[in-house]
C-alpha cells in the first residue's frame, strides 16, 4: 500500500469517528483547509514529473475525493443525530385539548324553512313574504271570512287598538295565518302563480302544544286547469321529499275553510316507535294511525275575485302547513315552547351546522 | 255535536255498526272526534233477583243475600248493606271482575266480616246513573233476570262525537247527519213524521216581530194547561243524557231534544210571567236582562231581544231570560219558533261573550223553511208529554227562504275536484242530499233551504266529490317547466340566508324569540310602536322595536342555567309605525374563551369582538366592506356604552350596523350579568349588489414582489386610527395597495396627550422594481398625507 493509500485509510477512519461537528470541522481544516495535509499534497502535484503525475496524480485526487465524501457523509449523519436529539426535547402531549373555535348553529325553524324552499324551488315555487302586522281585510275579509263569520271567532286573533286602523278603516291585527300573502301575491302578480309563503303567525292561544307565535308555510298555485289531483300530487311530492320517505301515504278528508272550496284536511299515516311518531305507511295498516297534518283546498272563486283575478279563467289550490310541527315530526323535538327559549343547550342539540345547507344533490336533510 | 247510534237509526234505516258510521262520517267531511260506548263501563253488571235475605251474623247493618243471576247456576251469596235489600227485589248485580263506574273499584270474591260475598248489588250512584245512594236499584219485577244491565237499560248505545264545521248548520241535528250518511250509501233516510196540529183560537199571549232585520219571522202559539212536572219519556231522557244534556224539565227537555234532533232551537216562556204583547225588537242601549245562566247582560241597540211591556225576556236566539223561564208550576206557555239573522246573532254573541247551543245554530243559519213543521213537532211532543190545549199558530213576519239555483257544469267534478264522476251518479248524490237537479249542458242545481252554505259551482263539486270520497282523487303532477329548475330566491332572501349562515359560521347560535315584549322591556328603546289591544299577557304586549330585548332575556335565562359563554343571534323583524324591518342581532356575554392550559385565564368578550363580527357579517352579506366608515353610535336612550360603541356606515345616513358594548343600565333591566357585546345589522340598509353576470373583472397577479415599509407616527390622543390609515392608503393609490395599523402605544417615550401609531404600508410595483428614489418619493407622500390628518413621523 502506498503512503497515500495509507493516509486515506487513516483520514477516512478519523472522519468517520468524529464525535461531533466541531471535531469534524477540525478534521476538515486539517485535511482540506488551506494548511491541510491533503491540500499540501495537492500543491505538490505541479512539481511532479510527468511519470510521477501519472501514478500519484490519481492517488492524490482519489484521496481528496474520499476525504471530501467522508466529511459530507459524517456531517449529515451528525446533523441528523443532532436534529433527532433536538426533536426529542420538543415532545408534546398530543392528548392535550386543542383550542376549539366556537361553533354556532342554525335554528330548526330556519333549517326547515330552507328545506321547504329548496324542495318547492324544484317544483317551480318562489318564496313570497308579507307583513306580520296585517289588516283585517287581507287576513279575513278578502279570504271570504266576513266579520260575522263564525270562523273569524275561531282564529283567536291579536288585535291592535282601533285608533291604529289603516286609512281605509281596516282593523290592524297580527296575521293569524300566512294566507294574507296569497291575497298580496294575487293582487300584485299575474298568473301563472306558484308561491310558498313561510313566516311567523300569531294566535291568542297558549298551552302545552300551542304558543302565541308560531310558523306556517302557505302554498298557492293559480293557473288554468289546476284541480285537486294537482294539489294531492304536490303535497305528496313535497312530503316525500321533506321526510325523505317514499312510503308517505296521505288521506284527504273533506273539511271547511272559507277561503277554499272544496276544502280538504290532509292526514298522514304514521306509526308510534319508541314514544315518537314516525311518519310513513298507510294509517289503516297494523300499528299505524292517521294524524292531521295540514289544511288545503281549491281557492274559493270569491277569493280569486276579491284579489282582482277572473275566477272563470283561473283556478288553483292553496295549503298551509305548520313549520314548527313538521320540524318536530322530522327531527324529534317534543316541546314546542323550547323553540322560542334560546336555550344554548337546546341549540347545541337540535340546531344545525351552518354548512349543512339543504340541497337537492346533497340531500334535503341535514 | 254528539249523537248516539240508536238516535241516528231513528232517522236512518241502516244495519251499519258504529265503526262503519264513524269511518263514513270521516270520509264525507264530518270529522269524528271520539267514540264511546257507555256499555263498556257496565260490563259485568246484570239484572239479578234476590231470593233470600238473612241478617249477617257479625254485623247489624249487613244482610247475607242469595241472588239468582239468571244463568241457571246455583244462586250466589252476596253481602249487602242496603236498607231496601229484601227477598224478591230485582236489581243490578256486579260480579267478580266488574269495575264499579263511580269509583273504579274492581269487584272480587271476598269475605265481608267473615262471610263470603261473590259480588255487589248496586245503587244508582255506583253505576253513575243518578245521585241516589239510599239503597240499591229496584227494577220492575218483569225485568229479564240475567240480562246484561247495559242492554236492559238501553245503554248499549255508542256515542259518536262529531266536529261540525261552521258551514254545516244542517248537521247540527241528528237528522242532517243521517241525510249525509244516506247520501254516502250507508242506509236510507226515513221520512220525517210531521203531525198536523190545528189548535184552536188565537194565542192567549199576543206576539209579533218589530225587527225585520234581526228577527224576520216570529212563529208560535200558546198552550194552556200543561204539566211541566211530567217527566219526558225514558227514551228521550236516555238520548239527552247520552249526549251530555242534563234533564231540566219536560218542556225544556223537549225543546232541547228537538234542537239536537232536528237542528231547530226554540224557546218556551211561562205565560204567567209575561205581561202584554211579546215583541221581537231592538234592545235599548243599557237595557239589562238576567239570562238563564243567572248572569246579567247589558244590551245595546243593535241586539235583538224578545220583550214584553215589562222588559226583556230573551236575548234573541242566544239565551232565554231567567224570569220568564218555565218552572215546575208552569201551566200556560208561549212557544216561540223564530228565525234570527245569523250575522246579527254572531255579532251579539261575540259582543256579550255568550255561547249557547242555540247561538251556535242560529249564527250558522237554521233552515228558514222549517218553522211550521218544527212548531207542529214541538207542540206534538208537549201535548203528548205535558198535556194541555194548543192555540192556533200565529206567524209574524216571513222567514228568508232563498230558493237558490246554482249553474253547474258536471265536468267540474273532474276539472276542479280531480275526480271524474258519471253524471248519473252525480245526480243521485245531489238528489239524496236534497238538491233539485235539472240536467242540460249546464245543470241547474236547486239548493235545499237548509243548505245556506251553498252558493257557487265549487260548492256543488265539493258535495259530489266528498260523497264519492276524496280517496278517489288521483295525483296528477303539476306541469314542469323545461330544463333545470330556475332559482327562485329574491335578493332579500339570499341576503337573509347568507347572514344567517354567516352568523352561525362565526360561532353564534340562532334563537327565535317572541315578536312581542313587555312595555318595560321596550321602554329603554323608546317604547314599541304597536301595542296589542288584547295581549295574552303583560310580558307579550308590545311589538318589539329591537331584537336586543328578546336576546337579552334569553341570555339571562342561559346565565340562570349556568352558561358561562353566550353567543346568540336572531334574524327577524323590528316593527315600526311605517313597516317591518329585517334585522340581524348578535349578542355576546361572558367568556369569549374559557380558561385553558395554553392561555391561562378565561378571556371576556370586548367591543372589538363585536366590531369583528359586524365587519365579518357585512362582508358575508356582500356589503362594500372597504368603503365602510366607522362613525359614532346613533344613541337614543342608554342602549350602548357611550365610549365603546360605533356604527358602520356608507355615508352619514346609511347606517348598516351598530356594534359595541351595551350600556350597563340596559343589561341591568334584563338582569344579565357582566358586560354584553352586541351587533345589530340592518338588512334593509345594505345596498343590493349590481347584477353584472357571473364574470369577474380581468385580473392577473403581479409578477413582481410587493414591498413593505413601516412608518411610526406621533399623533394627538383623539386622532381616529381609521382616519390615519385611510389617508395613508389614499396617499399614492397607484402604488399603495394596503395600509395596516399594527401598533398603538402611549406612555414611556411618548409625550403626554399623544399616542404612537405604527402602520405597515404595502407597495406593489407594476412593470419594474422600485428604485431607492421611487421608494423615497412614496414615503414622502405617506408622511405628507399623515401630517394632513394630524400625525407626525416619529424621529
Low-confidence stretches of chain A: none
Number of helices of chain A: 12
- The tally of beta strands of chain B, per DSSP, is 41
C-alpha end-to-end distance of chain B: 95 Å
Distance between the termini of chain A: 81 Å
Q: Give a quick account of the main beta sheet of chain B: strands, pairing sense, barrel closure.
A: 8 strands, mixed
Structural class designation of chain A: alpha+beta
Mean of the pLDDT scores of chain A? 92
Structural class of chain B: alpha+beta
Shape descriptor of chain B:
elongated
Q: Whole-number radius of gyration of chain B?
A: 42 Å
Strand fraction of chain A? 15-25%
Shape of chain A: rod-shaped
Mean pLDDT of chain B: 93
Rg for CA atoms of chain A: 42 Å
Helix count of chain B?
A: 19
Q: Tell me about the biggest sheet of chain A? A: 8 strands, mixed
Give the % helix of chain A: 25-40%
- Biggest interface: A-B, 94 and 100 residues
Give a description of the structure.
- The complex is a heterodimer of chains A (366) and B (795).
- In chain A, strand 7 and strand 8 form a beta hairpin.
- Chain A is 40% helix and 20% strand.
- Chain A is rod-shaped and about 130 Å long.
- In chain A, strands 1, 4, 5, 6, 7, 8, 9 and 10 form an 8-stranded mixed sheet that branches.
- Chain A is of the alpha+beta class and 366 residues long.
- With 795 residues, chain B is α+β, with helices and mostly antiparallel strands.
- In chain B, the strands form 11 sheets. In chain B, strands 28, 31, 32, 33, 34, 35, 36 and 37 form an 8-stranded mixed sheet that branches. In chain B, strands 6-5-4-7-10 form a 5-stranded antiparallel sheet.
- In chain B, a hairpin with a 7-residue loop joins strand 5 (63-68) and strand 6 (76-80).
- In chain B, 44% of the residues are buried.
- The chains are: A alpha+beta (366), B alpha+beta (795).
- At the A-B interface, helix 5, strand 1, helix 7, strand 4 and helix 9 of A face helix 7, helix 12, helix 13, strand 28 and helix 15 of B.
Amino acid at each position: 500500500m502506498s503512503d497515500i493509500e495509507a493516509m486515506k485509510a487513516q483520514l477516512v477512519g478519523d472522519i468517520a469517528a468524529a464525535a461531533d461537528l466541531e471535531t469534524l470541522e477540525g478534521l476538515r481544516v486539517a485535511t482540506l483547509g488551506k494548511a491541510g495535509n491533503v491540500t499540501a499534497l495537492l500543491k505538490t502535484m505541479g512539481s511532479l514529473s510527468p511519470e510521477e503525475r501519472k501514478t500519484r496524480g490519481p492517488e492524490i485526487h482519489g484521496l481528496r475525493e474520499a476525504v471530501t465524501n467522508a466529511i459530507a457523509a459524517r456531517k449529515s449523519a451528525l446533523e441528523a443525530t443532532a436534529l433527532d436529539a433536538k426533536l426529542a426535547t420538543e415532545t408534546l402531549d398530543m392528548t392535550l385539548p386543542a383550542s376549539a373555535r366556537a361553533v354556532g348553529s342554525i335554528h330548526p325553524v330556519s333549517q326547515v324553512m330552507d328545506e321547504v324552499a329548496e324542495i318547492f324551488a324544484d317544483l317551480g315555487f318562489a318564496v313570497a313574504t308579507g307583513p306580520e302586522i296585517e289588516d283585517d281585510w287581507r287576513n279575513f275579509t278578502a279570504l271570504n271570512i266576513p266579520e260575522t263569520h263564525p270562523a273569524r271567532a275561531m282564529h283567536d286573533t291579536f288585535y291592535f287598538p282601533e285608533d291604529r286602523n289603516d286609512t281605509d278603516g281596516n282593523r290592524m291585527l297580527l296575521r293569524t295565518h300566512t294566507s294574507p300573502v296569497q291575497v298580496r301575491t294575487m293582487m300584485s302578480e299575474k298568473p301563472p302563480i306558484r308561491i310558498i309563503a313561510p313566516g311567523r303567525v300569531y294566535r291568542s292561544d297558549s298551552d302545552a302544544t300551542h304558543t302565541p307565535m308560531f310558523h306556517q308555510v302557505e302554498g298557492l298555485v293559480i293557473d288554468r286547469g289546476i284541480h285537486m289531483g294537482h294539489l294531492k300530487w304536490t303535497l305528496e311530492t313535497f312530503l316525500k321529499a321533506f321526510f325523505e320517505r317514499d312510503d308517505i301515504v296521505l288521506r284527504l278528508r273533506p273539511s271547511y275553510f272559507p277561503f277554499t272550496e272544496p276544502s280538504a284536511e290532509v292526514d298522514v299515516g304514521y306509526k308510534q316507535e319508541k314514544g315518537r311518531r314516525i311518519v310513513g305507511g298507510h294509517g289503516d295498516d297494523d300499528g299505524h294511525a292517521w294524524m292531521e297534518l295540514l289544511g288545503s283546498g281549491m281557492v274559493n272563486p270569491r277569493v280569486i275575485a276579491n284579489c282582482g283575478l277572473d275566477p272563470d279563467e283561473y283556478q288553483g289550490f292553496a295549503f298551509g302547513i305548520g313549520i314548527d310541527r313538521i320540524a318536530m315530526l322530522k327531527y324529534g323535538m317534543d316541546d314546542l315552547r323550547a323553540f322560542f327559549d334560546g336555550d344554548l343547550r337546546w341549540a347545541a342539540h337540535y340546531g344545525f351546522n351552518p354548512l349543512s345547507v339543504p340541497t337537492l344533490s346533497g340531500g334535503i336533510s341535514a | 255535536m254528539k249523537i248516539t247510534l240508536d238516535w241516528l237509526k231513528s232517522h236512518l234505516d241502516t244495519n251499519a255498526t258504529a265503526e262503519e258510521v264513524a269511518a263514513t262520517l270521516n270520509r264525507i267531511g264530518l270529522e269524528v272526534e271520539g267514540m264511546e260506548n257507555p256499555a263498556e263501563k257496565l260490563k259485568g253488571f246484570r239484572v239479578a233477583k234476590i231470593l233470600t235475605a238473612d241478617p249477617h251474623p257479625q254485623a247489624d247493618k249487613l244482610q247475607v243475600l242469595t241472588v239468582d243471576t239468571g244463568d241457571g247456576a246455583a244462586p250466589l251469596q252476596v253481602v249487602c248493606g242496603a236498607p231496601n235489600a229484601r227477598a224478591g227485589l230485582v236489581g243490578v248485580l256486579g260480579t267478580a271482575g266488574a269495575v264499579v263506574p263511580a269509583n273504579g273499584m274492581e269487584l272480587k270474591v271476598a269475605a265481608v266480616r267473615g262471610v263470603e260475598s261473590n259480588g255487589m248489588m248496586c245503587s244508582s250512584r255506583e253505576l253513575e246513573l243518578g245521585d241516589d245512594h239510599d239503597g240499591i236499584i229496584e227494577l220492575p219485577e218483569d225485568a229479564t233476570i240475567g240480562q246484561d244491565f247495559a242492554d236492559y237499560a238501553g245503554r248499549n248505545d255508542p256515542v259518536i262525537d262529531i266536529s261540525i264545521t261552521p258551514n254545516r248548520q244542517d248537521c247540527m241535528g241528528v237528522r242532517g247527519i243521517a241525510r249525509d250518511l244516506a247520501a254516502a250509501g250507508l242506509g236510507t233516510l226515513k221520512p220525517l213524521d210531521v203531525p198536523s196540529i190545528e189548535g184552536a183560537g188565537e194565542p192567549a199571549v199576543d206576539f209579533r216581530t218589530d225587527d225585520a232585520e234581526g228577527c224576520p219571522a216570529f212563529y208560535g202559539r200558546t198552550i194552556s194547561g200543561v204539566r211541566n212536572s211530567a217527566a219526558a219519556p225514558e227514551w228521550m231522557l236516555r238520548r239527552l243524557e247520552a249526549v251530555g244534556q242534563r234533564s231540566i224539565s219536560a218542556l225544556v227537555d223537549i225543546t232541547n231534544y228537538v234542537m239536537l234532533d232536528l237542528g231547530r232551537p226554540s224557546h218556551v216562556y211561562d205565560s204567567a210571567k209575561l205581561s202584554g204583547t211579546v215583541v221581537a225588537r231592538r234592545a235599548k242601549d243599557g237595557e239589562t236582562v238576567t239570562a238563564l245562566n243567572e248572569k246579567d247582560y247589558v244590551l245595546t241597540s243593535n241586539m235583538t231581544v224578545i220583550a214584553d211591556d215589562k222588559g226583556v225576556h230573551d236575548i234573541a236566539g242566544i239565551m232565554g231570560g231567567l224570569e220568564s223561564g218555565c218552572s215546575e208550576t208552569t201551566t200556560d206557555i208561549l212557544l216561540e219558533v223564530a228565525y234570527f239573522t245569523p250575522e246579527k246573532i254572531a255579532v251579539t254573541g261575540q259582543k256579550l261573550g255568550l255561547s249557547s247551543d242555540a247561538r251556535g245554530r242560529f249564527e250558522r243559519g237554521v233552515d228558514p223553511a222549517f218553522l211550521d213543521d218544527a212548531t207542529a213537532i214541538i207542540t206534538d211532543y208537549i201535548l203528548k208529554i205535558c198535556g194541555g190545549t194548543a192555540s192556533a199558530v200565529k206567524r209574524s213576519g216571513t222567514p228568508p227562504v232563498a230558493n237558490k239555483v246554482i249553474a253547474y257544469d258536471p265536468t267540474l267534478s273532474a276539472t276542479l275536484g280531480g275526480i271524474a264522476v258519471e253524471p248519473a251518479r252525480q245526480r243521485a248524490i245531489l238528489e239524496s242530499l236534497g238538491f233539485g237537479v235539472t240536467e242540460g249542458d249546464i245543470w241547474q242545481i236547486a239548493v235545499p233551504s237548509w243548505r245556506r252554505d251553498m252558493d257557487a259551482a265549487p260548492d256543488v263539486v265539493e258535495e259530489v266529490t266528498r260523497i264519492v270520497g276524496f280517496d278517489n282523487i288521483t295525483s296528477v303532477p303539476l306541469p314542469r317547466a323545461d330544463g333545470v329548475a330556475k332559482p327562485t330566491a329574491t335578493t332579500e332572501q339570499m341576503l337573509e340566508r347568507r347572514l344567517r349562515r354567516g352568523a352561525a359560521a362565526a360561532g353564534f347560535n340562532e334563537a327565535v324569540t317572541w315578536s312581542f315584549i313587555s312595555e318595560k322591556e321596550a321602554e329603554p328603546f323608546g317604547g314599541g310602536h304597536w301595542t296589542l289591544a288584547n295581549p295574552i299577557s303583560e310580558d307579550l304586549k308590545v311589538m318589539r322595536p329591537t331584537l336586543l330585548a328578546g336576546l337579552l332575556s334569553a341570555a339571562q335565562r342561559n346565565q340562570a342555567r349556568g352558561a358561562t359563554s353566550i353567543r346568540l343571534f336572531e334574524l327577524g323583524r323590528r316593527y315600526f309605525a311605517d313597516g317591518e324591518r329585517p334585522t340581524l342581532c348578535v349578542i355576546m356575554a361572558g367568556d369569549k374563551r374559557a380558561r385553558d392550559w395554553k392561555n391561562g385565564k378565561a378571556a371576556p368578550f370586548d367591543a372589538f369582538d363585536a366590531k369583528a363580527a359586524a365587519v365579518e357579517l357585512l362582508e358575508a352579506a356582500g356589503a362594500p366592506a372597504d368603503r365602510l366608515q366607522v362613525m359614532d353610535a346613533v344613541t337614543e336612550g342608554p342602549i350602548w356604552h357611550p365610549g365603546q360603541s360605533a356604527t358602520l356606515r356608507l355615508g352619514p345616513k346609511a347606517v348598516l350596523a351598530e356594534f359595541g358594548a351595551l350600556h350597563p343600565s340596559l343589561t341591568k333591566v334584563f338582569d344579565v350579568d357582566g358586560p354584553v357585546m352586541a351587533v345589530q345589522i340592518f338588512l334593509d340598509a345594505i345596498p343590493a349588489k349590481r347584477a353584472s353576470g357571473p364574470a369577474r373583472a380581468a385580473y392577473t397577479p403581479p409578477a413582481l414582489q410587493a414591498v413593505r415599509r413601516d412608518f411610526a407616527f406621533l399623533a394627538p390622543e383623539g386622532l381616529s386610527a381609521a382616519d390615519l390609515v385611510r389617508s395613508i392608503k389614499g396617499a399614492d393609490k397607484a402604488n399603495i395597495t394596503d395600509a395596516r395599523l399594527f401598533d398603538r402605544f402611549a406612555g414611556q417615550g411618548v409625550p403626554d396627550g399623544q399616542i404612537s401609531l405604527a402602520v405597515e404600508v404595502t407597495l406593489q410595483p407594476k412593470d419594474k422594481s422600485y428604485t431607492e428614489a421611487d421608494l423615497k418619493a412614496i414615503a414622502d407622500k405617506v408622511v405628507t398625507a399623515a401630517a394632513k390628518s394630524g400625525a407626525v413621523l416619529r424621529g
